[in-house]
Amino acid sequence: MTDSSIDRTPATKPANSAGNTTSSTAGNTPDGAPEATNGPQTRTESRPNTPQPSLLLRLLVRLYPRRLRERYGQDLIQLHQQLASDSRSSDGDGDGDADADGDTGGRGISDGHALSNHNAQSNAGPAKNHKHGTNGRSETHRKQGGERSRGSWQAILDTLVDAPAAHWAELRRTLSPPQPLNTSEPGTSAPGTNAPGTSEPVRHRLIFDNLQRDLTVAVRALARRPGWTCLVIATLAIGLGGVAAMWTVVDDVLLKPLPYAEPARLLQLVGTEDGELKIGATVAFLDVMDWREQNEAFEDISAYDEWNPILTGSGDPVRLDAAQVNSGFFEILGVEPRAGRFFLAEEDVDGNDAVVVLSSTLWRSRFNADPDAIGRSILLNGSPHVIVGVTKSTFEDPGLSGRFESAELWRPLGYGGVEDNRLPNRGSESYVAIGRLKQDVNIEAAQAEIGTIAARLELEYPRSNTGRGVALVPIKDRLLGDVRGTLVLLLIAMACLLAIALLNIANLTLGRSTERVDELAVRASLGAGRMALLRPALAEGMLFGLAGGVAAVALAQPLLGKILTLATAELPRAERIIIDPKTAVAIVVCAILVGAVCAALPALSITRGAFNVQSRSRTSVGRSTLQLRTGLIAAEVAIALVLLTSGAVLARSLLNLQHTDAGIDPRGVLTFDLSPPGADYEGVPELDAYYAQVFEGLRAIPGVRKVATVNIIPLSGGFDGNGLMVPGQPSDDEDGEWSIEVRTVTPDYFSAIGTQLSAGRGIEHADRASSAPVVVINQTAKERFWPDADPLGAQIKVAGSDAVIVGVVADTKHLALDEPAPFQAYLSRSQGLVPWQVRRQSVVLRVDGDPLNADLGLVPQVRDAVWAVDGNIPLANLRSLQSVVNQTVSKDMLRAALVGAFALVAIGLSVIGSYGVTSYAVTLRRRELALRMALGARQARVLRDVVRQAAQPALIGLALGIGGSWLAVRLLAGFLHQVEGQALIGPLLAPLFLAVVVIASLGPARRATQIEPMIALREE
Fold first, then answer.
1. Of 719 and 686, more confident
2. Parallel/antiparallel/unpaired status of strands 383-391 and 355-358
3. How many CA atoms lie within 13 A of 298 on its CB side?
4. Measured distance CA(702)–CA(698) in Å, rounded
5. Residue 255 DSSP code
6. Are 789 and 758 in contact (CB under 8 A)?
7. How does pLDDT run across 769-795, given as a tens digit for each residue?
């Protein structure tokens, strides 16, 4: 066979030992093109004075398909070289030695694809399968025979255009069925046989055709049963969508490492008392300094304290969530600044600490990401501070205090960062400490060393440090707290729901496979193999699995949003949790696998054994399938009852917790924080004057009934423990002091917050700095120290000051609703007995109606009244007191809501499964029921018989579920509050569950009683 596009003489050479022939142009082959090819070949004669192929020509040839390059690479290079030669030698008259090549110069490199056409003919059939032979563009070039000098650039252009067409032709040839070959060509097979090497493409083509046909049939089959298809897809979406949402939360919160360098070496130093870990801020500043100086196990240790300065002079005044840290804090976390620098050691001392580092968010929102902000002075609490650095946008403050998730600003802690009257007090454990272990030190060795230092401090400072220890806890464990247990519980509940969903899908596909017994028998009789019988089921399973996976991904994001809405207060960085692409792809892949397995296994069970499907009756197969489906329903009911019992127990616990007497009435109460800066309000008289003006403006707002302040709102998470000394009743401590929670309040506080006065009076306007100090105690303190006496008039020492008891009030909950009330003392803010409590106050307003109702317009009026006195003092944490109370039960609400929702969905799936099994059983028994009714059986008897058959798997499942419920309630004991008789909840819910299942089976049962005997028998 000759090709007019190149100058060569057909010549068949005997094969060498490898079966190859060698081209006469050896040494000119391109990279990747072998010098010898298999089979009979033609030899290309070397063109005299032809330049050696350049790197550009080699690269151009490599754009063509591999097979084309291996067989005709040298010829393609010669075509490029001929074009280049024509460009140099042609004088524009259309003549040149290209004529000797059969119009090659006129056609250009595009006709080089005729070589590929030749390759296609010798391997896979006629050239009609290729677009790159003598195509329309080549015909046009032949008509333009005089335009042969197009140059190398035209060769490049042709290659870029033609190489993709060559690849497409190669792909089509691979997928095309074998064609009869022309036996007149050398090297071809005999007529009617395939060319060598075509078995693999044929097999690929057959697989492709079979897959396409199976998918088409599967789409039609699913479309014929839209109800069944939608039910399976919805079940998959619910099960996998819920798993995707919960897994995303668990992965982001529990599994992903913290965004710091080598987070495993980050430890929090937690204070202990008698070996028990304390909660919240637990260490003293001076203790941290001693640990920092005396240890050898840590690279560095830093104290951490929350700070809420007021930023003014840069837009509206705003109160910031900020932190005070030692120099080295950022180095401990292993982060670098985005701009500027972090703190220097010399700035971590009193007098040099008026410098700050901004978060990237604050830098953008308040300073418009101005690079010149570094070195600028800003006002914090009325005092100038210099910006020395900005953190990266990816940096997240660990929020060690627990009062906020991430700080917006940092300043050195030093001595200037702490109130003077707290710093020397080694007993004030109001700080958090964090450290980074050295590379070669393990946590056990560090714990031993830090314990030794703590024991030494206990001997040096027995008054404050007796019984005080320190424990090293991985920072992630400390930050997560008990949210780990909640997430694990929810993940287990979601896994149970997924199990029910999968059982339901298996149930549905079992029925679908049984319906195809006749079809399988016919196809098996015609000689279909097992794989041919399974392919339709596999195709259906993959299709509804794909649809279910996509629906699951679509459902997962809104479900995740609902979860995060419930758990915003409990989950760190909740606003950043999203369904990532990897999770979405994994869910879709899992759905496809689940669909394929659930669809194929029932079909495989039908075709197993001796593979005599045609000899097996539909009834026998249906009855065996019915037994399996009944077992699946029993498992669904058991799991659903466990979930229902768990949800009921958690809901009951939540209700008990919400009805706990907190000692306050949160309805109709609005609260917000004010913190006048010390630069403008130095002492108690100035603060009294400021609050008096604020109160006057707030009382003028319509609907406001009471106005007062307190340093810490109940149940807000804050605390301030101080010493209490009761004459004649010393404590076991060396100094004889008891620990008591101190609140500094103004008159009308108890009536504003809804706390009942038990005896005496509350704080009044007459209780000022010029009068004798007074104190009001709570009922718990009264019962402990004066159980049988009247405490009014008794003198005690609170926070180092003598005061006279003038009243007793009801207990108010301190940190949580399920914790006992501590000893509490209420002091007058105007008397200033605890100086650090008088500046930052929470305002409490009791109003008519919902304080956050936009129609009332209360919030704007409150803001205007406050800013009318001083527009530089922002309102922070503006919220209703009811939201504060709700936040304390957020974890319980999250657990009860999600487990309850999972339980309801599980019940729905179980009922659907029971309904399907009952309908299927009625279909199988159609002939039997028709005979019985023809013989005189009453409809009530048939109805009762069908319902009893439907109730049997439910009874088995309920029996198993009662045992599982008892175990589940015991495992949930740590999450429950005041729930008695938990073990009886499962047996009490079982009859209700059974009633639901029976009601669901009434529909198929009623249809069974309406069977016309003659019609049913005629159908059989």
1. 686
2. parallel
3. 30
4. 9
5. I
6. no
7. 889 999 999 999 999 999 888 899 999
